[in-house]
Amino acid sequence: MRVFRKAWGAWTRPTPRGRARRAAVVLGCVPGLLAVLTLVVCAAGVDRRVVEPEPEPGSERPAAAPLPTVMHRAVRPVIVPRSRWLDARSTRAQPPARYDDHVVAVFVHHTDSPNAYECADVPRIIRSLYDGQTGVRRWDDIGYNFLVDRCGTIYEGRAGGVERAVTGAHTQGFNHGTAGIAAIGTFGAGTPVPRALTEAIAALAAWKLGLSDVDPRATVRLVSSNNLSRYSAGTGALLPTLAGHDAGFMTNCPGAALTSQLPHIRARAAHLQGR
Q1: What is the 3-state secondary structure of the chain?
Q2: Which of 37, 164, 249, 258 has the greatest number of CB atoms lying within 10 Å of its CB?
């Protein structure tokens, strides 16, 4: 089990020479500091339309922790950028992306949409999902960080950069420190799950979790930020680092068929990390 704690830095008393040098640096940087303060003030006034309210400080966000010297990294898979599915006519104004320190868990979803699609039509399908979530539901962006089609193609979802720990809107109560991967389709009991899809999810999870050296077969303790999740706000939950949506929310997502594939996906992702 991985538990992330805040690493606090220690203050030291500066020498007289250090104080003089620091004063010179501060005076030379006054214009820059004023610019930064202006940006902070502006950002505080942004109207963020999100799926759940911001948690109280420290209630859910995994704090930064020193990463181990020996890392279990996986090769980054090919990820199609969002510019391939989001055209200028569909783009809506949205607040800046929000970030966490690390991604310590991945939630797997399905989009609950038809399975009989041509993979060439996937950009249009994702654009429709985006239109529904940002239009009817009035979300600030598509909720999933990534989407995977039945041919194994991985698409960037939510804006902010695939390398970074972008705060998503995919699992009520557990959006901080996690990434949401959506399988395009519906995977209820008895539905065939394409191997290309599960291999792509495993490769993506192995790479994303490997950036913070998280074992896809492990567990992590997260704290719910929302009473609408499976756990009331403030409640700690021991969850798989590679979990189905239903582990954190009352739902049948990602479907019984895809859920049954999660043990294989975890094992495959760990293998890709060299574990």
Answers
A1: CECCCCCCCCCCCCCHHHHHHHHHHHHHCHHHHHHHHHHHHHHHCCCCCCCCCCCCCCCCCCCCCCCCCCCCCCCCCCEECHHHCCCCCCCCCCCCCCECCCCCEEEEEECCCCCCCCHHHHHHHHHHHHHHHHHHCCCCCCCCCEEECCCCCEEECCCCCCCCCECCCCCCCCCCCEEEEEECCCCCCCCCCCHHHHHHHHHHHHHHHHCCCCCCCCEEEEECCCCCCCCCCCCEEEEECEEEHHHCCCCCCCCHHHHCCHHHHHHHHHHHCCC
A2: 258
